[in-house]
Fold this protein.
Amino acid sequence: MEAIKIAVCDDEKNIRSYICSLVRKQGVECEVTEYATAEDYFLAGADYDLLFLDVELKGPDSSMDGMEMAKRIRGMEDIKQPIIIFVTGYEKYVYDAFVKPKQVGEHPIPGAESVLLADVAVDQQPDFF
């Protein structure tokens, strides 16, 4: 099996670093790329299997938040559709994001508010789950 391609998109460096460290501790062969803005993600033009996405993306260089970014990704029919895991400190965003999230769990991040992760419902589970 080839490496899982994972993107982490969050304007806070400590959150990106923490998520990347959690992913790498899983012992699964993967390529992890970090992005501070939606624009950086789209400019890279890479296809990912999994995307950890900050709901707010409040960075000074970001013109769209994570919700807008997810909608844009879902509207791009010509790309591989990643599983999106929303990262937020606000529970209400998880339920606003998509109608039927499959799993929701709280995971604390040192130096930040608690973070909710929601695995977005998809038609088929990829081989790595």
